[in-house]
Design brief:
KFase/CYL (chains A, B, C, D), hydrolase activity (chains A, B, C, D), alpha/beta, homotetramer, EC 3.5.-.- (chains A, B, C, D), 16 strands, two-stranded antiparallel ribbon, 9-stranded mixed beta sheet, 21% strand, Glucose Oxidase, domain 1, 308 residues, Cyclase family protein (chains A, B, C, D), KFase_sf (chains A, B, C, D)
């Protein structure tokens, strides 16, 4: 069995292998130039900061369906420990065990392969148990700050939350972009709001996971045409789930991560941001979203902040 | 045994309990107003981004001396797993176990107590094994973006790395500030460079840990006078180690975290930033340093980025 | 609020504090003398070994209801790694994160306290975040081998599985003992079969957990009278759940662990053993059930084996 | 590069592939028949139990040299938590993260491969990140109880501890067997004492690890001739280290685990047992050493107990 022609046709059109050299490991993040960041900083009007992350806790997003992707387990190893003797200053210390993709996170380019290949044509087997991702690991992303643009598809479609199974189309992105009043351009980080995370916030983790609205297989070409640096949204699956084409699973993951070399973000909470942008009518902002630099990791939790 | 009068005298002068209300959990981070952030964004000149974090890996900063503060253990739980059948898109997933204070991190206000009290007078016993920090946990910090100012004490003193055991004084901060050409003001995040992290970067973890240059017990008053929001540096111990006053351990931790309610950062790599600031002569920048919002945690890894 | 008189009356009758000295940390395990073990070995007739443990895996007993008691997360850190160069002998290594009470386990005496006290009157606060159980930790149990006796209460009551919420009484133990054809004596480890684990084996983790048959508050006196060394059964809750007396939660835990100083085992799979004993008509055997000696732990996984 | 002829010659002579069927996953453990265990139980004279395990704690055997093989990190997640309200019975719970081969442990047959093969000719790639060992995992060992025989090579050679780098030969095993006064026979578990663990007990972890006495490449034929079920000793490396033949690393591992299908134990503390056997002059006993049944794991901690 192999991936269908429909997939490969799109793959050819969005492929970025070699575009930034054969050794490049960060793909579309190369589009975030100093100048892009300089302009991003210039979008700041009020200095208001809106966090886009879910809390990291045992009662988190994961339901156990994805093996090994465990919610954060937090444990104290010292509590008010008077290390240097009775009456001295006391310290508390803690540890965590968690799946790196468990909560609000970035997928590294190495998170997905197809047909035995990672981004830039590297063999999939460069991901190993011993050292993790030898190519395209999250640790190669040293910083991730750029202009962010909220494409509030739910609002543009006149609803607060898209239906489970709804596929967000390029036309939806056009409409949301028009509502946003700014054109998406090279190096931008696009945040696509579906409203799906409301299920999670209301405590319905299973309803949040499935069925889910998400990106259509047709959207990677849109992002490619605009030279977007990265895309994140407010769902667990990122792309529409169940998928649009029978037996074609995770095509958007493969197009973004493998073909384009574009990082993806999932489980981002865009609710407060949607309200803020709706109030001001401004949908572009400075976005800070640097992942934790785990060496060899295929993803990382991230605590993104929009500065309006 | 109790803390000496020398400590309590300073404590009285820098105490911020009640200043932002009796329920406040974020202390001096209240000083980062929208206006402060707006001006911070305006410091961006070129858009160059400088990361300030160490890689997160098993071969990390910790030597085993601090019980439970384990270096990150990264493990793959899926590698190119064709979840949906042979020939489909394949996924890799990973997990991590780590001490939250193991690498480049923020101390939450709840990280330290003295005389049975946390910041704002809350009882130390609000930190529990069950839920962690019930007050002053890192998860209460929803965003951490402000103006950063590098006080390059090593350079101001004409050296590349301060001696082990050297106590950075208020006068050192004055000199570095004068060299920086900008006055530290309310809401700033101050980064104090000692050069000590060079030992760590050279692979000498034990020499990095001890003896260490670091902040003198006299510096909290300096930070308090300027209404600094947070302070980070490039050492493991943060304050000078061994301490200046015999048997007075971690006084700066207690003054910052408990008395002032000011978060501290440790193990920040300021080498590349020092070079960049030295080249441009500009030592102020936009600093993004939002911690991961672990619920109830007394600290968090952070991947800070200076935008110049 | 405090525990009711009904509890304290029983507590007085079964209390063993001081019986083996004021420094004793292993309680009724002292009853397993060399002679007891010598006789236990003499019960072996065929050499058939029956394992009593559940597999340790992510898809385990825990449902997430008990915070922090996580199912085993197993991850590979090396797979066929040719450590010494290509073509050399290759190694695979793995790590695990798990709740020590997550699967088939022993509760250490320090697992439970009431009224601020552990077994032998030690203060509950000897359990600390820093070092765990300073008294009565599982690591103080250096070996656990004795005669085991299966009291197959389900069979004795003519059923394959007791109803959820059924409280196993002293009279039930008498009947099962009579069926077993051996008198329970000092130093024995008693295994009480309810059949409840069938729910777990059939994949119904929630039904397994609740409601559950289990030991009545009246049974500790039975175990005390016979000077039993330890008791284990095939349920998650060990004692009947919901409890017999409104608002009196976990009284059997408190009587066994705190008052008697008797370790308890939970989630033991007694199905194969029940069949084996039923076939031979012999319900006594050599039982090996030494916990893993985690220093300062309040419990441990165990892989018990009955040798018939 | 491939393994030398010297290796392959021995491999042919000790190979057990197919001996217990092509689907067999437990190798020489098949030699532990009911009758073997019945006779093992009959060796018990006094009922004295001697534990053979090191404590499981952060301050453990591992030095960080073997990546990912981390010492146990123990943390409390509940301490005296009154789950059901104030004044009720209180519980303490804990979690652990550890390398499965970190302390006193068994290597599963899947722990090692050579030339792309595991025991019984199975492909090495049956060990995967997703499910671990699909063949020869430790979870396939349902019980491990047999006669144990201590071959006290150190004592037989008139020393308390063999020199680092000393290779234990078949002749040494013969001499120790003669001293033991019993002939090693089919299904026995052989414990080879070198005394090396004294370094570890004295706190010298590096000296314990290297250089180490251990089994010579000539000993697998001895174990094969006697049809031994399993072998364990009191070293980190199991076989002599550095190796006897230049660039032939871990040949004994490969011969035992891959060719013979015989589990190995490492870091067993045989000091107390040596004393006990020396006092009584009896070196055979009942040995209980069942691993924890981690599904898909390539090893497991074990708490072995000798019953004399």
């Amino acid at each position: 069995m192999s991936l269908p022609d429909a997939f490969h046709d799109i793959a050819k059109r969005v492929n970025n292998w070699g575009r930034w050299g054969t050794d490049d490991e960060i793909g579309t993040l190369n589009l975030i130039t100093d100048e892009v960041v300089r302009q991003a900083a210039a979008t700041v009007r009020t200095g208001r900061r809106v966090p886009l992350t879910l809390p990291l806790q045992q009662d988190g997003v994961q339901t156990g369906v994805i093996p090994g992707r465990v919610n954060p387990l937090h444990a104290m190893v010292q509590i008010n420990q008077e290390i240097f003797g009775p009456g001295t200053v006391a310290c508390s210390d803690d540890v965590v065990t968690m799946g790196l993709q468990a909560a609000t996170h970035w997928d590294a380019l190495s998170h997905v392969s197809h047909s035995g290949r990672l981004y830039n044509g590297r063999p999939a087997h460069t991901v190993t148990p011993h050292g993790g991702a030898g190519f395209g690991g999250i640790g190669t992303v040293r910083h991730l700050v750029s202009r962010g643009v909220l494409l509030d598809v739910a609002r543009a479609r006149g609803t607060d939350r898209l239906d489970g199974g709804y596929a967000v189309t390029p036309e939806d992105l056009d409409a949301a972009e028009e509502m946003a009043g700014t054109r998406v351009r090279a190096g931008d980080i696009v945040l696509v709001r579906t409203g799906q995370i409301q299920a999670c916030l209301a405590g319905d983790r299973h309803g949040y996971a499935y069925p889910s609205p998400g990106l259509s297989i047709r959207t990677p070409e849109w992002f490619h045409a605009r030279d977007v640096a990265a895309v994140a949204n407010d769902t667990l699956t990122f792309e529409v789930f169940p998928p649009e084409v029978a037996n074609l699973w995770l095509p958007v993951h493969a197009l973004h991560l493998v073909e384009m070399g574009m990082p993806q973000g999932q489980n981002w909470n865009l609710e407060e941001l949607s309200t803020a942008c709706g109030e001001t009518g401004r949908y572009a902002f400075l976005l800070t979203a640097t992942p934790e630099p785990f060496t060899g990791a295929t993803g990382s939790p991230v605590a993104p902040v929009a500065v309006l």
